[in-house]
Design goal:
- The protein is mostly helical.
- The chain has one domain.
- It contains seven helices and no strands.
- Helix 1 packs antiparallel against helix 2 and helix 2 packs antiparallel against helix 3.
- The longest helix has about 60 residues.
Length: about 220
């Protein structure tokens, strides 16, 4: 076998190897995308439930606030809850929009970027719902008690109610700073660690950094 024949044989092997690598890469990509689609279907079902729940709660709160429009001490807490659940609904809609924005037929970098944007929306949803919970405790107490026929102001006393409201206002920033400390450590529970990072905003910063790095890579590729 002369040199030209050897070069031709090697060229054939290289082409076969390239086709094999492309096929393996395509199979791996399709497998990973199938797993991602499956996870997103489960997420979509959960987001649908979350959206329906937010809509029902918001509709009930609006109706309740309208009924209590003559009682300012009930109306104000109800209005706070209406505003809060309106924000929660917006967070859910933002997640749904991010999920629908994922085009699995597009380039891998575009899919990765869309997934990171969805992750940012998920982190923001977790963060603000948890941080808002201590602040909303007092309005929930007033509205819930009134809905079941109890005058919370008369039954609990002004001093106790003021203490509850101040406690909720103080607990939100304390929860934020505690989560930042916890996020720097490694608790035994991965779920607890993830929630701490989400509330502290560290996961959000990481996700945004990844989106920026992907966008920068896309700019370099198109340059």
């Amino acid at each position: 076998m002369n040199l030209e024949e050897m070069q031709e044989v090697w060229a054939v092997h290289e082409r076969r190897l390239e086709r094999s690598l492309r096929l393996n890469h395509q199979l791996l990509r399709e497998t990973q995308l199938d797993q991602t689609r499956s996870a997103l279907r489960r997420l979509g079902a959960w987001l649908g439930f979350e959206l329906a729940t937010d809509l029902v709660v918001l509709a009930w709160l609006c109706a309740f606030a309208f009924e209590q429009r003559a009682q300012l001490r009930i109306l104000l807490p109800a209005a706070c809850l209406v505003l809060a659940w309106g924000c929660f609904l917006r967070l859910t809609l933002r997640q749904l929009a991010a999920r629908r924005g994922i085009d699995f037929s597009g380039p891998t970098l575009a899919i990765q970027r869309a997934l990171e944007l969805l992750r940012i929306a998920r982190i923001a949803n977790t963060r603000w719902r948890i941080l808002a919970a201590p602040i909303l405790w007092f309005p929930l107490l007033v509205v819930g008690g009134s809905a079941f026929g109890h005058d919370v102001y008369a039954e609990c006393g002004a001093g106790w109610l003021i203490a509850q409201a101040l406690f909720g206002l103080a607990l939100a920033p304390a929860l934020f700073f505690a989560s930042r400390k916890l996020a720097q450590r490694t608790p035994n529970s991965p779920v607890l660690q993830r929630i701490a990072r989400d509330v502290a905003g560290r996961s959000l910063e990481t996700a945004r950094a990844r989106v920026e790095s992907i966008a920068a890579f896309e700019r370099e590729e198109s340059a």
